[in-house]
């Protein structure tokens, strides 16, 4: 019989290549004639000898085009009819038993003349030596897998190794190349299915943390892709700010209504720990300092050293977006307060925000030390000590033994049900030992956070809890990671390991259900059902931090 197969790789930033093969597995020769058929969403045209193209893809990207090029030695003459094309070799040939016949083609999506020319050269290079390109791609992937999986034993890959490999594949699947002024460096979108039109800062810092484990260069590029846009909008309130989102062509444009929680220094620390690239650290450190100071200049309404989430206008939706938790119950009754033109704060101070800022101060101190600036390192450590004292007193409810947001004012009420924002003081090391011990009781309570899939974003016994309610009950893997790493930090390694085992075993697409199912935004805490966008990048990144060999480096960096 005749067996067909195909393989695809990337041979450039915007050029993919494919190999299509026919193998004669029978006992007699077969006459075969290679050909290709395809269709596009827009009308096609003949482009050049052995190629077809689609242009007029979007009025927002008038020079963008897709070009399909066929291996010149095939001698195919593509025919175009509207949105369809067909390309076949001029003559048939005999395929002997056990013989394999392969044909190659490339597909390039480019935005401007310089990219068009680069793609043409990449295709020519591939057609000259296709096997070399396939071998190089194989070696790259083998390197990725060695770094995230480690050694595979005689019994085959373990569940954790399979999850780690799938996580690396997910991040690479979401990888997008630089795209002119809109995106100066490569980066990963959150999801190819749900959020493919841009990169978000909240996601980018997490992606970089995961990417650093197997591709520190791409991780650094992910960080740069966001920091390139720092302060691009005019106005005093945007100096030092990092936008919420950077739009990709054709949906270019940055989202300046809000930023996202400050985990940039954390990401840079993990990237530098892997790459040892001091030039990268020197490049981004001033930007990290500007971003850190921005929070205290524009998001501290009462100037007490504790910050609030906010927005550029009187907009509670954008404030929620800034928190990263779009519909969190803690913001159900939040109002906005004006700080200055284009700078507003919520009327509550958020515990996770200030825990992240505490971690930023400690991380900036560490990074300054790596750069040889002992004075700056000491100053950031002193600031961290002050913030630790303030936050422990301000956000911990002694009666309930948990961390909460607080309304502004010396006697402001604690806000909201128990939520995942209370995990952050343990992850960052802000909590005292007695505070961590009391939070641990809630984390291990099956009625609250120790559900079948551990660590929902709202306690399961809270009135506001909804297992499929986005940020009102599902398990988000970044927050689950914060809980696990927090337990480990305070010496509860057995509790942490048990939670990780249950999470990996019980969530669909991990250890339950179809193992090929893609990672999603979040998971049902009682059933493990996958929920939200598929192929979700930060889920993959945090699964790598939980499973990949050597990912313990994060805890060492945090100190």
UniProtKB/TrEMBL annotation:
Keywords: Glycosidase, Hydrolase. It comes from the Eukaryota. GO terms for biological process: oligosaccharide metabolic process; protein N-linked glycosylation. Belongs to the glycosyl hydrolase 63 family. It holds the Pfam family MGH1-like_GH. SUPFAM superfamilies: Six-hairpin glycosidases (SSF48208). GO terms for cellular component: endoplasmic reticulum membrane. Residues 199-539 form the Mannosylglycerate hydrolase MGH1-like glycoside hydrolase domain. InterPro entries: 6-hairpin_glycosidase_sf, 6hp_glycosidase-like_sf, Glycoside_hydrolase_63, MGH1-like_GH. Gene3D superfamilies: 1.50.10.10. This is Mannosylglycerate hydrolase MGH1-like glycoside hydrolase domain-containing protein. One of its GO terms (molecular function) is Glc3Man9GlcNAc2 oligosaccharide glucosidase activity. Transmembrane segments: none annotated. The lineage of its organism: Eukaryota, Sar, Alveolata, Dinophyceae, Gonyaulacales.
């Amino acid at each position: 019989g005749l067996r067909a197969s195909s393989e695809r790789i990337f041979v450039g930033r915007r050029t993919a290549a494919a190999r299509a093969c026919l193998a004669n597995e029978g006992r007699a020769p077969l006459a075969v004639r290679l050909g290709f058929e395809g269709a596009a969403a827009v009308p096609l045209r003949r482009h050049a000898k052995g190629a077809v193209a689609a242009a007029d893809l979007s009025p927002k990207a008038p020079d963008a085009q897709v070009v399909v090029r066929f291996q010149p030695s095939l001698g195919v003459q593509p025919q175009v009819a509207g949105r369809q094309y067909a390309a076949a070799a001029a003559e048939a040939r005999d395929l002997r038993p056990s013989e394999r016949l392969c044909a190659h083609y490339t597909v390039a999506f480019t935005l401007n003349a310089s990219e068009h020319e680069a793609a043409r050269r990449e295709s020519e290079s591939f057609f000259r030596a296709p096997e070399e390109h396939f071998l190089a791609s194989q070696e790259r992937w083998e390197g990725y897998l060695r770094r995230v999986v480690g050694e595979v034993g005689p019994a085959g890959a373990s569940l954790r190794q399979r999850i780690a490999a799938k996580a690396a594949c997910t991040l690479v699947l979401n990888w997008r190349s630089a795209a002119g002024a809109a995106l100066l460096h490569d980066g990963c979108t959150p999801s190819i299915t749900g959020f493919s039109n841009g990169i978000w800062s909240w996601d980018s810092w997490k992606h970089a943390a995961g990417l650093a484990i197997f591709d520190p260069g791409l991780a650094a590029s992910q960080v740069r892709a966001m920091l390139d846009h720092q302060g691009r909008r005019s106005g005093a309130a945007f100096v030092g700010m990092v936008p919420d989102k950077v739009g990709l062509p054709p949906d270019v444009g940055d989202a300046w209504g809000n930023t996202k929680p400050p985990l940039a220094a954390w990401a840079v620390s993990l990237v530098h720990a892997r790459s040892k690239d001091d030039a990268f650290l020197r490049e981004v450190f001033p930007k990290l300092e500007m971003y850190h100071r921005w929070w205290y200049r524009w998001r501290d309404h009462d100037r007490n050293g504790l910050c609030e989430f906010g927005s550029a206008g009187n907009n509670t939706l954008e404030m929620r977006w800034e928190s990263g938790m779009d519909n969190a119950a803690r913001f159900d009754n939040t109002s906005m307060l004006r700080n200055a033109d284009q700078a507003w704060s919520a009327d509550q101070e958020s515990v996770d925000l200030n825990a992240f800022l505490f971690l930023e101060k400690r991380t900036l101190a560490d990074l300054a030390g790596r750069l040889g600036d002992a004075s700056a390192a000491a100053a950031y450590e002193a600031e961290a000590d002050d913030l630790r004292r303030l936050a422990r007193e301000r956000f911990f409810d002694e009666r309930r033994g948990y961390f909460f947001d607080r309304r502004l004012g010396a006697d402001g009420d604690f806000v909201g049900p128990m939520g995942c924002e209370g995990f952050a003081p343990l992850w960052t090391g802000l909590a005292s030992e007695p505070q961590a011990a009391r939070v641990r009781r809630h984390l291990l309570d099956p009625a609250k956070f120790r559900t079948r899939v551990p660590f929902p974003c709202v306690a399961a016994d809270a009135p506001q809890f909804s297992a499929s309610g986005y940020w009102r009950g599902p398990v988000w893997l970044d927050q689950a990671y914060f809980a696990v790493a927090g337990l480990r930090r305070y010496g509860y390694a057995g509790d942490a390991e048990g939670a990780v085992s249950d999470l990996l075993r019980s969530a669909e697409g991990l250890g339950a259900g179809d193992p090929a199912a893609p990672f999603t935004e979040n998971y049902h805490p009682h059933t493990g059902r996958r929920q939200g966008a598929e192929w979700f990048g930060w889920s993959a990144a945090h699964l790598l931090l939980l499973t990949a060999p050597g990912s313990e480096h994060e805890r060492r960096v945090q100190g």
